[in-house]
Structures are given as C-alpha cells and as structure tokens.
C-alpha cells in the first residue's frame, strides 16, 4: 500500500478524455495500520514526517521523495499533518499536532458522470429501481 504525505492532481496520468474520479475517505489509525500489513510503498518526502509516521504506525516509513502516478484502481493512504510544520528532528508527534489518515481510491471513467447518471436514471425508469440495481451490481 502506498503512503503519501500529500495528495495532488499531478498524481493523475494524462486523462486523454477520461474522467478521474477519486474517492477520499477518512480512516482511523487501526485501519491505516491494517492496510500496511502487506508492505508499505512510501512517497513521503519529508524525513521528519516519515520518522513520526514510523513511530505512529509501528512500521518503517522511509523518506522517499518521488513522483506518484495513480492508475485506475490504485489506492493510497494519505497521512495529513495538521498543526504546522514539524520541528526539525522530530521523531514523535509533538503536542498540538495531529495526523489524520485518508484512504484515496482512483477510478478513471470513459464518460462524464452526468452522462453516466443520466443513463442510470433512464435504465431505472425502464426496468424499475430494484431490477436495475441488481443488474448494475452484477456488472461491478
């Protein structure tokens, strides 16, 4: 699982007419820790932030400043520091600071959401809501 200390539009590859649909959900520390059971791919670009994350998560989070491109279906945990810039040399989270964790999932669609929703509503009208939702669920 990727860990990032920021989320940016630069993380999307060229869209070439597709629509990027990121979903962002705040998660608790326990959920974040569980997501890293299979390993961690760090793109945390600040040494102090990486050290503090290592302490909080109980795993090694390396400081690796690299560009990330999120492809269709990719997921990443964003560790958002609040409270200001960490004091130089921080190894633990200082008083007055907080790290919130967010799970980011990225999907790329060939059509605009407005077109997708319009098609969905037409399908619901034609089949009835429950039957349409069953058909959609089968295709996901």
Describe the structure in brief.
With 140 residues, the protein is α/β, with parallel strands linked by helices. Helices cover 31% and strands 25% of the residues. Helix 3 (113-127) packs across helix 4 (129-139).
**Order of SSEs, N→C?**
EEHEHEEHH
Q: Structural class given helices, strands, pairing?
A: alpha/beta
So how many helices? 4
The total domain count is 2
List keywords for this structure.
five-stranded mixed β-sheet, 2 domains, alpha/beta, 140 residues, Rossmann fold, single chain
Describe the structure.
With 140 residues, this protein is an alpha/beta fold. The chain has two domains: 2-109, Uncharacterised protein PF08960, DUF1874 (Rossmann fold); 112-140. It is built from four helices and five strands, in the order E-E-H-E-H-E-E-H-H. The protein has helices spanning 29-35, 47-57, 113-127, 129-139, and strands spanning 2-4, 19-27, 41-43, 75-82, 98-109. A five-stranded mixed beta sheet has the order 2-5-4-1-3. Helix 3 crosses helix 4. It is elongated, with a radius of gyration of 19 Å. The model has no long low-confidence stretch (mean pLDDT 87).
Topology:
Layout: E1 2-4, E2 19-27, H1 29-35, E3 41-43, H2 47-57, E4 75-82, E5 98-109, H3 113-127, H4 129-139
Parallel strand pairs: 1-3, 1-4
Antiparallel strand pairs: 2-5, 4-5
Helix pairs in contact: 3-4
């Amino acid at each position: 699982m990727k860990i990032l200390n920021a989320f940016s539009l630069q993380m999307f590859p060229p869209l070439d007419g597709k629509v990027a649909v990121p979903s962002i959900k705040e998660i608790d520390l326990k959920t974040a820790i569980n997501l890293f059971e299979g390993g961690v791919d760090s793109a945390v670009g600040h040494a102090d932030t990486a050290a503090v994350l290592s302490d909080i998560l109980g795993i090694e989070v390396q400081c690796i400043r690299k560009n990330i491109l999120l492809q269709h279906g990719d997921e990443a945990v964003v560790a958002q520091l609040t409270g200001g810039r960490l004091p130089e040399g921080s190894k633990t989270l200082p008083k007055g600071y907080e790290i919130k964790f967010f799970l980011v999932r990225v999907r790329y669609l060939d059509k605009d959401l407005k077109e997708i929703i319009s098609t969905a509503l037409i399908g619901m009208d034609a089949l009835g809501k429950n039957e349409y939702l069953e058909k959609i669920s089968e295709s996901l």
